[in-house]
Amino acid sequence: MANKGSILMERYELGRLLGQGTFAKVYYARNIMTTQSVAIKVIDKDKVLRVGLMDQIKREISVMKLVRHPNIVHLYEVMATKTKIYFVMEYCKGGELFNKVAKGKLKEDVARKYFQQLINAVDFCHSRGVYHRDLKPENLLLDDDENLKISDFGLSALVESKRQDGLLHTTCGTPAYVAPEVINRKGYDGVKADIWSCGVVLFVLLAGYLPFQDSNLMEMYRKIGKAEFKCPSWFPPEARRLLSKMLDPNPSTRISLAKIRGSSWFRRGISISSKSTVVDEVSTDQASANTDDKQEVACIPKLNAFDIISLYAKFDLSRLFEEPCLKKEAKFTSRKPALMIISKLENIAKRLKLKVSKRDAGLLKFEGTKEGKKGTLSIDVEIFEVVEAFHLVEVKKSSGDTLEYQQILNEGLRPGLQDIIWTWQDDQQPQQSEDQLDEQQPNNQIQPEQHLDNEQQPPEQQQQQQPLLQKHLIRQDQLP
Questions:
Q1: CB–CB of 12/31 below 8 Å?
Q2: Counting Cβ atoms within 10 Å, is residue 447 exposed (0-12), middle (13-18) or buried (19+)?
Q3: What is the pLDDT, as a whole number, of residue 402?
Q4: Could you tell me the pTM of the whole model?
Q5: I want to staple 317 with a disulfide (CB 3.0 to 4.6 A). Which of 1, 140, 160, 338 is the partner?
């Protein structure tokens, strides 16, 4: 551990200070070998330990490794010394989206582009069991190509954080963007709370100012609780309707992400991407398949040591909250090529009458063609390369009925994949008589969920004549 600081200096050339907070500073840096620009977040370990936030730092690392998406800031690696923790992250040259919108409202097409990317990334987080809980323009960065990237998962929660009532109970977020049910302290659905915050962000992008604002914090909370806001005259009718459904104070009737994506205002300007195509029928024509072989293999993400450790069974917290028979995910390893695994999965999906969507980064999505007990069943299958010709595959239910998912998994996927499986994660022995793999499963000590207390200044009343935004942070004692 002691030499990690010197290793960091050997790999990266540190540059200017990009920003700083109570516990960390963020620097621009350059990888000496590849010349790639990165951002390095340097966390003061002593300060974090003093306020008891080390578990939160660990959770942030786990979450950022879990949510790999084009519109989420990528965490490349983590290093630590006796006094510092270093996050080496994707560098977003465009800075915070806040800086753009603080100058005034955005053009509708520009706002829609950012909103589409935000919803896509948030939807992906939720499919991985992650709730951000602090979505705001200050935490949305822009890369060189002006693409949005969600950052700062310090307040995020995992699905395992839910209590027995199925709700989250840690009150956190930013006052101007927080959902009314979070303020009420009676438990809340992380999905619905994030949707509310996305609605506030959309309003800010189109208006240039906040929908709920008052110099008196308690008065602002009252407005949030009753959803008292007024859209300016330049908002198109479709955007007004969408906002009224997103900023519904009743979380049970608030619009879902699927319906947001299906709304007319959201869909305007979307073109069919060659990177996301729906496969209705699995082709067995080798000639047509060869053209995409190299691209398909190139998309498979490679796991480093940190990823492998975080995916080990003993780091899976779901077993503490679910009965074994109701697990919503499964993992298996295979010594077959990625293309063979994908082909096998597609053939099984066809036989089970599941629709298959191909996505980037080795991710396949299976969807049922009929409504189940809890909506349409949706299953994510993600393929990772551990070493050459050895892959880890994660199968996870993202929506629908868990019992229906278990039936598909146990009666369809498991038997159908039998001939390419090395071992399932929950099996004791490999299913094939090949060379044994050494398995070491580290102990995992589970700590209770904690929240981050940030500093905040009360928002000031803003004039629509000269729309201005202020950065907003929160302290626990500022919530009622």
A1: yes
A2: exposed
A3: 82
A4: 0.61
A5: 160
